[in-house]
Amino acid sequence: YTEPYFSLVLISDEQTAFKFNFAYAFYGFSFSPYTLGLESSSGYAVNDFRGNTTYLSVGFSYIHYFRMR
């Protein structure tokens, strides 16, 4: 398992920031419907399941820090 992860944080002021996240994960196994407990390939060809499992994750978040006095 390897997941390169990139995050960009844009600070608006002392208490507010915006965050953009990008990640691409590589797993060391291939996916199949049998992994989920399904008994059929649901219309997909067997060749469609031969590659390694990967996924792309894109995210956005708003962060606000509350002052504790």
Structural summary, described in words:
A 3-stranded antiparallel β-sheet has the order 1-2-3, with no helix packed on it. A hairpin with a 4-residue loop joins strand 1 (5-11) and strand 2. The chain has strands at residues 5-11, 16-30, 52-64. It is 0% helix and 51% strand. The radius of gyration is 19 Å and the shape is elongated. It has no helices and 3 strands. By secondary structure, it is mainly β.
Offer a few descriptive terms.
69 residues; 3 strands; 0% helix
SSE blueprint:
Elements: E1 5-11, E2 16-30, E3 52-64
Antiparallel strand pairs: 1-2, 2-3
Number of strands: 3
* Helix content bin: under 10%
* Low-confidence sequence ranges: none
Widest sheet: strand ordering: 1-2-3
Radius of gyration over alpha carbons?
A: 19 Å
Q: Describe the biggest sheet?
A: 3 strands, antiparallel
Kindly, what is the distance between the CA atoms of the first and last residues, rounded to a whole number of angstroms? 43 Å
Strand pairing plus helix content: what structural class? mainly beta
Structure annotation, total helices: 0
Strand content: over 45%
**General form:** elongated
Q: Give me the strand/helix succession.
A: EEE
Q: What would the average pLDDT be, to the nearest integer?
A: 87
Give a short overview:
Helix content is 0%, strand content 51%. With 69 residues, it is mainly β. β1 (5-11) and β2 form a beta hairpin.
